[in-house]
Automatic annotation (TrEMBL), chain B:
Domain Cysteine-rich: 11-91, 140-223
InterPro entries per record: Cys_rich_dom (IPR004017)
GO molecular function terms listed in the Swiss-Prot or TrEMBL record: oxidoreductase activity
Recorded superkingdom: Bacteria
Coiled coil: none
Naturally occurring in which organism (per UniProt): Ectothiorhodospira haloalkaliphila
CC annotations in GO: cytosol
One Pfam family in the UniProt entry: CCG
Protein's name in the database: Fe-S oxidoreductase
Length: 700, 257
């Protein structure tokens, strides 16, 4: 992506005058902030999770090459191919070579910020591939010929009306004559248009949120299901990601997952977390024939080697710093000029592309610290930005006027004998200029201030130190015009003892904070309040819009499926995992296909290895009798789960999978509710690309 | 004032630049509050700027030179108290700023440990639980970023304000969101800063409050400048003025009737 980072101020002006943008950003900010707040409050050990997250990321970065080696070995042992790209150009060339070798024509893409970072989209377009963005937000901005304005919600700057017009313009020729204005209507229209493209793609490109060194899994964390369709259906799957994405173990990833969903969208788990480990196995019936991982450096080694900026590599790309940044909230993502906006972008862009083209980014920040407060891995973003400002100051790349202003102020402030008269004179002059008015409506020396739509309050007229007079201390005569109200002192009792009758406006005395983080209660690693058991699984899944029906025995499954289909008026093809083929389907009046899904099915039925009570997550493992496509292509997804296989936490699920007498599966799908998107006006709509509903048949 | 504290500490009042220049009443209010709490108050006359504008502009050398001045001026007091979270947080950054000199760093750490924002000093150190001031009407409180996030100032001003007779606190939405001042940011990026303070002004108005209070003059000048521009009747005071019962004169940015 070649967007310029130089004309920051011009882009800011455009953004501030865009009423659609203001509307969209206001809605997004409130939504993201509230959802995160609720999710974090519901997890009382969140601070401890953050500390563990920091420890995991820092440890990994300290041993990055070791863990990358481990990942590469494990991934290649399972038939995958790893490529390392030193820079953007090399990354583009690697991916183009893979596409060329595959004889590709159509390339589907899941959302990948690294692909944006290395300019892969333009490269694919220039090389003549039919590139299809499949994330709804990315698809919208592809139609608009724009770039993402947010790292997890690329089209957050678009209003529904704008999306309606875009779809009408591009989909008319595909037979969608009507202008669709409702959110479900827009999501459905995109679903129909993109479904055919998923099924006919030759190469699928996704990013990766994590690379697990332990077992060579590349992991994507999504909601729509488009990432899985992109990874599973084409002949070739390419995962493009940064070298810093690696984590040592599944347990480490689990900790980061607990931070990621809550910080990003306020979700306990996103709908889909998928671990892909190499190409289709000998006995698999679906999955790509080749799986490549492209590890992109592009400036990351430099950050790793510089202790001042290394912490930036902890970033797990949740977007919380954007959502809480008041500057981002005012100007949106495009003003930042490159793929990474907001606080994280203001650090990453100069470090990746050089300060020369991004001089404003470290400066355009009030250093209010909101970003660092919400960062799940505690990246000290304001400190990093201040560090960049120091570099800019040393290199004399900031403007002459601010340099001079600061220098002049420094000279005055170093000399009390000068400082006091300057303050005295300024107080008098400004006070005189605005006498009687209280504010100045203009002041030539400080015209910038007034451009912000505000006046400048005027001083009282005399400086404090002048009024105080000479001497080192406060004059013995009280300065107070009125006698001290009730100035009695508590006699000799213990400090901080009598806070009893204080109504706290914030509710509760324990909420007082003193210094950051000092009041966070210590929580045990396994809080007893965490869920466990089938009933907790059920309520957690219901929170994620999934449902559970209890059955006594496996033989009940076909009849119950038939009954539900009848109740809901579902007909059309049914596909069932071969693992469940032995059940009496004919007896229930159903004639399902057994095998992978083809894309035209109304109903799909698969079986889960286990369920996780903590999150309401189903764990499905691919294999000869368990195709992955059933989990994503049918409109209505049903999953069989034995209640004995409900475990408390994700860590327990990993142990179950490790203890099976089979090799680690090619694909592990963690499914927490149906497919969903919030890419149109932050409103959640189920059934984006994957199933519209998810029902669990729980065998007691 | 209801106080609960052992001895009579010697407190140096830090007269921040904006207070010195703009709002001496805040300084006198601070002195009054500290004395009522049982402190002996001094105002070192050689004090100047804490160096925050230089520090945040990347001019480490100037920030360092000013930090050394502050170290010297404020030696020998039990506590240093500021009616500003921003400048307080700057003193908290001195140990990092002087980290290349172990001896200076020890002194900077000692100074930082003795330095407090005014309301947190009154509540957390002096054990003040109530003031005897009166102000009739509804107020809303803006949390200044440095005080809130670097010094943990949030409940203390609210606790004290809740004991001001006649005053009702009504929290505005986004009280903890930056007002857009940011020192030099406000003049370097006035359009962005202006949008941010316009949002803040809207939240203030929505709260229905008659008074906007806060603990940092930078933010208050910014918000008052915006409210006056809008023609808003909301009156802006520093929290110290209200707690000391000295919010009886002109509010910040208010003209003479």
């Amino acid at each position: 992506m070649n967007t310029s980072t130089t004309d920051f101020k011009a882009r800011v002006r455009v953004a501030l005058n865009d009423r659609h943008l203001e509307q969209a950003l206001g809605r997004a900010r409130d939504g993201f902030v509230l959802k995160r707040r609720k999710a974090v409050d519901a997890r009382p050990d969140f601070e401890a999770l953050r500390d563990q997250g920091v420890a995991i990321r820092d440890h990994t970065l300290d041993h990055l090459e070791d863990y990358l080696d481990q990942f590469i070995q494990a991934f290649e042992a399972q038939g995958g191919q790893v490529h390392r790209a030193a820079d953007a150009e090399e990354a583009r060339r690697i991916v183009l070579d893979i596409c060329a070798q595959a004889g590709a024509r159509r390339v589907t893409k899941g959302k990948s910020m690294v692909a944006e970072e290395v300019g892969l989209n333009e490269a694919l377009d220039d090389a003549g591939y039919d590139r299809v963005e499949t994330d709804l937000g990315e698809y919208i901005i592809q139609l608009a010929h724009e770039t993402p304005s947010h790292i997890i919600a690329p089209a957050v700057h678009k209003t529904r009306e704008q999306i309606t017009e875009l779809f009408h313009e591009h989909h008319r020729k595909l037979g969608f004559a009507e202008r669709v204005t409702s959110i479900p209507g827009l999501v459905n229209e995109a679903r129909s248009v993109l479904r055919e493209r998923f099924l006919t793609a030759d190469v699928g490109i996704t990013g990766a949120n994590f690379l697990v060194a332990e077992n060579g899994a590349s992991v994507i964390v999504t909601n729509e299901g488009n990432g899985d369709l992109t990874a599973t259906l084409p002949r070739v799957h390419v995962s493009v990601t940064g070298i810093e994405r690696v984590v040592p173990t599944l347990e480490d990833m689990t900790n980061l997952l607990r931070l990621l969903g809550r910080s990003a969208t306020g979700q306990v788990m996103t709908s889909y977390t998928t671990l892909s480990t190499g190409p289709r196995r000998a006995d698999d019936t679906d999955g790509p024939l080749a799986h490549h991982v492209v590890l992109v450096d592009n400036g990351r080694s430099g950050m790793l080697a510089d202790p001042r900026y290394r912490a930036m590599l902890r970033c797990i790309r949740c977007g919380a710093c954007l959502n809480h940044c008041p500057v981002y909230g005012a100007i949106g993502g495009h003003a930042y000029g490159w793929v990474y906006p907001g606080p994280m972008g203001s650090v990453l862009t100069p470090l990746t592309r050089g300060l020369g083209s991004a001089q404003d980014l470290p400066q355009a920040c009030t250093l209010n610290g909101h970003c660092a407060e919400v960062c799940p891995v505690k990246i000290p973003l304001p400190e990093l930005l201040r560090g960049l400002r120091e570099y800019q100051f040393e290199q004399r790349v900031i403007g002459r006027r601010p340099r001079w202003a600061v220098w002049l102020w420094g000279q005055v402030a170093r000399r009390p004998g000068l400082y006091r008269p300057v303050a005295r004179w300024s107080a008098r002059t400004l006070g005189w200029l605005g006498r009687g008015q209280g504010v100045l409506q203009r002041l030539p020396m400080a015209s910038g201030w007034f451009k912000g739509g505000r006046y400048l309050p005027v001083p009282e007229g005399r400086s404090f130190l002048e009024m105080l007079g000479g001497g080192d201390t406060v004059p013995s005569t009280p300065l107070t015009p009125t006698p001290l109200p009730g100035g009695e002192r508590g006699s000799g009792s213990e400090a901080e003892g009598s806070t009893h009758d204080l109504p706290s406006p914030l509710g509760g005395e324990g909420s007082g904070m003193r210094g950051t983080g000092s009041t966070v209660p210590e929580f045990p690693r396994t809080p007893t309040s965490l869920p466990g058991g089938e009933r907790d699984f059920e309520s957690a899944l219901e929170q994620a819009a999934g449902t559970v029906e209890w059955l006594d025995q496996p033989d009940d499954i076909p009849r119950q499926l038939a009954r539900v289909m009848q109740q809901q008026g579902l007909d059309g093809p049914v596909v069932v995992a071969p693992a469940l083929a032995h059940l009496d389907w004919a007896g229930a009046g159903l004639a399902p296909r057994f095998g992978p899904a083809l894309g035209d099915e109304t109903v799909g039925l698969s079986q889960a290895v286990c369920g996780v009570a903590e999150t309401g997550t189903l764990v499905l493992a691919s294999g000869a009798d368990d195709p992955t496509t059933i989990n994503f292509l049918p409109e209505y997804h049903f999953v069989v789960l034995a209640s004995a296989n409900v475990v408390d936490r994700l860590e327990d699920a990993w142990m179950r999978l490790r203890e099976r007498d089979k090799p680690w599966p090619r694909t592990v799908n963690l499914i927490t509710g149906p497919s969903r998107t919030a890419d149109v006006e932050q409103t959640i709509q189920l059934g984006a690309h994957g199933p519209r509903s998810l029902k669990v048949f729980m065998l007691s | 004032m209801t106080v609960n504290s052992p001895a009579q500490p010697h407190v140096a009042l830090y007269a921040t630049c904006l207070m010195d220049l703009y709002r001496p009443n805040v300084g006198f209010s601070a002195i009054q509050l500290l004395e009522s709490a049982g402190c002996r108050v001094s105002v070192p006359r050689g004090q100047t700027c804490c160096g925050q504008p230089a520090y945040n502009s990347g001019d480490r050398a100037t920030a360092r030179a000013l930090a050394l001045r502050v170290l010297k001026e404020f030696e020998g007091f039990d506590y240093v108290v500021l009616p500003s979270g921003t400048c307080g947080a700057m003193i908290g950054a001195y140990p990092e700023l002087l980290s290349d000199d172990p001896e200076l760093q020890v002194r900077a750490r000692d100074l930082a440990d003795r330095t407090f924002e005014l309301t947190s000093f009154l509540v957390d150190v002096m054990g003040v639980t109530a003031v005897s001031a009166r102000l009739d009407g509804v107020a809303t409180y803006h949390d200044s970023c440095s005080g809130l996030r670097e010094l943990g100032v949030r409940d203390q001003p609210r606790r004290l304000l809740s004991t001001v007779q006649g005053l009702e606190l009504n929290e505005m939405t986004d009280a903890q969101v930056c007002c857009g001042f940011g020192g030099l940011f406000s003049v370097k990026y006035p359009e962005i800063s202006g949008r941010m303070v316009a949002d803040k002004g809207r939240r203030v108005s929505e709260s229905g409050a008659r008074f906007l209070l806060g603990g940092d003059l930078g933010c208050l000048l910014n918000i008052a400048g915006r409210l006056r521009h809008e023609g808003s009747p909301v009156r802006v005071f520093h929290v110290a003025e209200v707690l000391a019962g000295r919010a009886d004169g002109q509010a910040i940015g208010e003209g003479r009737a």
